[in-house]
Specification:
binds magnesium ion, alpha+beta, 6-stranded mixed sheet
Length: 400
């Protein structure tokens, strides 16, 4: 038996008819439609979206489901089976009102608002949310929620919206109405990923390429380690990094750091060193090297050799730790312990300062690596992490 915590599987998750039954218990009638949208992990390309560059996420087999039925009035009546403690059990908002509810219900309300503002009028609806995406673990439960709701409301409205367009709307909901400044990666991954593929996404043009990512065929596996800590990042740490990237781009005379090609990296770093202190230089160096790592990983995956991405994962982690300075003791402990236990590669994933790391290893070793990571946490006095294997999974889809 592998010693990683159990992975949620389709069989363990409530089936479509159980979700329909829960909807009926909540709202006293049968639903009309249900959509499922996954969380994600980013394989490589961290903070590159701040610089309009490439990212390479996969969808994970943990999803948020939105089950809906239209109403004849303009009310959106919502319940989440995971939303307790963030407001009342049932939350009602009037569509068309700009005031969003507090707590989790702000997300679905913001999605409805973004759809309306962008010309997709949605009907009043009853909405049940159910999910097994861990919240606040850097696996993007917020995008999974937004995408499931956006797709479910569109199907009630009879609106056919392309997946990437819906991702853009879901991101607007989070940016403009909830007020969280995220990039397009999370929503694009949740909407557009495919089974056994990673999504190469150009965050400037929104062009995508499905890159084969079938680890099982290579005898490999990927494990998520949720450190279950979230150190206060503070909006200021994020915006300081954003400003450093902007300063560097302006100094180099480019729109964004992604516009610095591989052959210009050395001279650009020299130019920056002449003007700015180490901080700007280090931030830019992370972006340049990370951009190269994304391109290299895509190349090795295209050639069917996923084990060859191991060194890129490790170098990516070192760069986030030392140059971008967004790691923390728990994330470093995962990477160090996983490597000591024979992992092929490991890195923090997501925004950092806590959240999750990924570990790539021979499939048969993942369980033992999980045990070593847990022991390392215990030794350091950290609370036990949550380890679970993931496979590259399908993006948002209709359940009924
Ligand atoms: P994450 O890294 O998981 O996206 P965020 O802070 O961006 O973390 O989003 C988490 C928030 O999204 C939660 O605090 C909650 O408001 C909302 N949310 C996500 N999933 C659910 C759910 N299943 N039910 C209710 N709210 C949810
Ligand atoms: Mg989020």
């Amino acid at each position: 038996m592998p010693q990683t915590n159990r992975a949620p599987s389709e069989e363990l998750r409530p089936a479509a008819d159980e979700l329909a039954a829960e909807f009926e218990r909540t709202f006293g009638r049968m639903p009309e439609a249900a959509w499922s949208a996954p969380g994600r992990v980013n394989l490589i390309g961290e903070y590159t979206d701040l610089n309009e560059s490439f990212v390479l996420p996969i969808a994970i087999p943990r999803t948020t489901r939105a089950i809906v039925a239209a109403r004849s009035d303009r009310a959106l009546v919502m319940r989440s089976t995971q939303g307790y403690g963030e407001g009342p059990d049932l939350v009602t908002v009037q569509l068309g009102e700009a005031d969003l509810p507090r707590g989790w219900a702000a997300y679905p309300a913001a999605v409805a608002l973004a759809l309306e503002v962008n010309g997709y009028p949605v009907p009043g609806a009853e909405l049940l949310i159910d999910s097994d995406v861990p919240v606040g673990a850097g696996l993007s439960s917020s995008a999974a929620l937004e995408c499931a709701v956006a797709a479910a409301l569109c199907s009630l409205a009879g609106a056919r919206v392309a997946p990437m367009d819906l991702a853009v709307l879901a991101r607007r909901a989070e940016n403009d109405f909830v007020g969280v400044p995220c990039g397009i990666m999370d929503q694009a991954a949740s909407m557009c990923c495919q089974d056994a593929h990673a999504l190469m996404l150009d965050t400037r043009s929104h062009e995508v390429e499905q890159v084969p990512f079938d680890l099982a065929a290579a005898g490999l596996g990927l494990m998520v380690v949720d450190t279950r800590v979230k150190h206060e990042l503070g909006a200021s740490a994020y915006s300081r990094r954003w400003q450093a990237c902007q300063l560097a781009a302006r100094t180099l005379g480019v729109r964004a750091l992604r516009d610095v090609g591989p052959s210009e990296v050395e001279s650009s770093l020299r130019a920056l060193a002449g003007v700015w202190d180490g901080e700007v230089l280090k931030r830019a160096r992370h972006v340049f090297t990370e951009q190269a790592r994304v391109l290299h990983v895509v190349e090795v995956l295209r050639s069917g050799d996923p084990a060859a991405m191991g060194p890129d994962l490790l170098a990516g982690h070192a760069s986030l730790r030392d140059d971008f300075e967004v790691s923390c003791a728990e994330l470093d402990a995962v990477v160090d312990a996983a490597c000591a236990a024979g992992a092929i590669g490991a890195r923090m994933t997501g925004a950092g300062f806590g959240g999750s790391a990924i570990v790539l290893a021979e499939e048969a070793r993942l369980g033992a690596i999980g045990s070593v990571v847990r022991a390392a946490f215990d030794d350091r006095g950290f609370a036990p992490p949550h380890c679970f294997p993931v496979t590259a999974s399908a993006g948002a889809h209709r359940m009924f």
